[in-house]
């Protein structure tokens, strides 16, 4: 298996622009997680899907952030409009049934200037 | 939600030395994992260990669920072991909560 695949690996955008991050979970996994990593806050969970349904989005920082999972093999995290404080590494992870071992993608390093 | 604390926050070792990293968690867990974040930022799975002991080469881990802690042992450390080690746990909510990490530097 290719593991969790994220794209793009790096994204540089100007403040105010829309940013879309993409994730393909491991085939057969039905739980998907989006995390954000910053120096100040460490690794924090943004949103969790189970069977394509958002279960907990309490970590989504504000309305500028939205996430979708239209099918079992694809998810997006969108920021609109982006701000410099959104600069971070965004990780996607997947697991089977949520409580089993989770595997992480390589992350997307987002820089908003 | 569950709280996860790791110690020490920073560790410097001479190549060949052994070390123990600790992870304390505030509640019973369904899942506990150890990860290594390498200098390129990748999160590498080391152990899935909600209880018991596992070994993989120079690394081993033990989780004592009843006492709410886990230990990661690194023996005969190498420079390639450098990076940040994270412990993460979840309980009924199924969402992994990460500790703050232990930043390890192994000097040649």
Which features would summarize this protein structure in a list?
heterodimer, A: 113 residues, mainly beta, seven-stranded mixed β-sheet, four-stranded antiparallel β-sheet, 0% helix, 55% strand, B: 108 residues, six-stranded mixed β-sheet, globular
Task: Report on the architecture of this protein.
The complex is a heterodimer of chains A (113) and B (108). Chain A contains no helices and 11 strands. With 113 residues, chain A is mainly beta. In chain A, the strands form 2 sheets. In chain A, strands 2, 4, 5, 6, 9, 10 and 11 form a 7-stranded mixed β-sheet that branches. Chain A has a 4-stranded antiparallel β-sheet with strand order 1-3-8-7, with no helix packed on it. Chain B is mainly β and 108 residues long. The model of chain B has no long low-confidence stretch (mean pLDDT 95). The chains are: A mainly beta (113), B mainly beta (108). At the A-B interface, β4, β5, β9 and β10 of A face β4, β5, β9 and β10 of B.
Rounded mean pLDDT score of chain B: 95
Mean pLDDT of chain A: 95
Elements of chain B, N to C (H/E): EEEEEEEEEEE
Instruction: Report Rg of chain A.
Output: 13 Å
Q: How is the main sheet of chain A built?
A: 7 strands, mixed
Coarse morphology of chain A: globular
- The oligomerization state is heterodimer
The portion of residues assigned to helices of chain B is under 10%
Strand residues, percent of chain B: over 45%
Specify the helix fraction band of chain A.
Answer: under 10%
Helix tally of chain A? 0
How many angstroms does the end-to-end distance of chain A come to? 36 Å
């Amino acid at each position: 298996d290719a593991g969790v695949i994220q794209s793009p690996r790096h994204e540089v955008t100007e403040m105010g622009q829309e940013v879309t991050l993409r994730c393909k979970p491991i085939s057969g996994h039905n739980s998907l997680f989006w995390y954000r990593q910053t120096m100040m806050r460490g690794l924090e969970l943004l949103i969790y899907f189970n069977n394509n349904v958002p279960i907990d989005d309490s970590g989504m920082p504000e309305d500028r952030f939205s996430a979708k999972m239209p099918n079992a093999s694809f998810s997006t995290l969108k920021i609109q409009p982006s701000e410099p404080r959104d600069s971070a590494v965004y990780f996607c992870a997947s697991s089977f049934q949520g409580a089993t071992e989770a595997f992480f993608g390589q992350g997307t390093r987002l820089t908003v200037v | 939600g569950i709280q996860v604390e790791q110690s020490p926050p920073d560790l410097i070792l001479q190549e060949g030395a052994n070390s123990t990293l600790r992870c304390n968690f505030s509640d019973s867990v369904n899942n506990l994992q150890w990860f290594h974040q390498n200098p390129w930022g990748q999160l590498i799975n080391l152990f899935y260990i909600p209880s018991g002991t596992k070994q993989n080469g120079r690394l081993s881990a033990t989780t004592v669920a009843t006492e709410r802690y886990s230990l990661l042992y690194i023996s005969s450390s190498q420079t390639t072991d450098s990076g940040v080690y994270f412990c993460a746990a979840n309980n009924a909510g199924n969402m992994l909560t990460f500790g703050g990490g232990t930043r390890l530097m192994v000097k040649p």
